[in-house]
Amino acid sequence: MSSLSQLEPRPVKSSSNTQDDIVYEHIFDAILEQRLAPGTKLSEEALGDIFGVSRTIIRRALLRLSHEQVVIIRPNRGAVVAAPSVEEARQIFAARRVVELAVTELAVQNATPESLARMRAMVKEEQDAFARGDRGSGIRLSGEFHLELAHMANNTPLLNFQRSVVSQTSLIIAQYEVGHQAHCSFNEHEILLNAIESGDKDTAMQQMTEHLNHIEAKLNLDGDSASTDLHVVFSGVAKKRRGR
């Protein structure tokens, strides 16, 4: 896994985003793409230098991430990327099963041709990313697929919870996955969409359960891995700032 500064972050979604929105999105994406290792110290000074913003902006972004439990803010010692224990990892997967099944059931009820087409495009983009060897983007798109599924469910509290457990799951995978096993989630995502589109709630929920089981089966909950340099992970931000 790379350290914090050498990978290019993806573009910010909207030019109307505030500065702390932008910082938040970059850090959230770095977690989804597994470029930020569990346990990485998130120096306010380093991040302020990387993004060219004040520590106040950085603190607001880190506070938002702490509410989603992917960043831990330690009094008088600063913030770090969360590093779930084995027991916490199991609890997070148990919670994710509950929320994903609820999301899937509601998605079957609320799916529209437009939302299905949007999600099929995401699956294609995810497949293309893995095909060209861009594992980080593929992992991020896989996580975003599940967030978009929560949008399809049309339930804001579930979406907020989904955002937290998806990013926490990414940390668990970064910390505990055995090697870089072949990633076939886009095939499972496509099968899930087929069930949702057909209105087959039972099959859709069964497919979601199997999908989560496959993700968890790739983990060695006795393992550990890490990588930690903020400037490396967010080097793309610094390059863009220097280029202006």
UniProtKB/TrEMBL annotation:
Q: Which InterPro entries match?
A: GntR_C, TF_FadR/GntR_C, Tscrpt_reg_HTH_GntR, WH-like_DNA-bd_sf, WH_DNA-bd_sf
Which terms does the record give in the GO molecular function aspect? Answer: DNA binding; DNA-binding transcription factor activity
Name the PROSITE patterns on file: HTH_GNTR
HTH gntR-type domain residues are 17-84
What keywords appear on the UniProt entry? DNA-binding, Transcription, Transcription regulation
Q: Which PANTHER family has this protein been placed in? A: HTH-TYPE TRANSCRIPTIONAL REPRESSOR NANR, TRANSCRIPTIONAL REGULATOR, GNTR FAMILY
User: What protein does this entry describe?
Assistant: GntR family transcriptional regulator
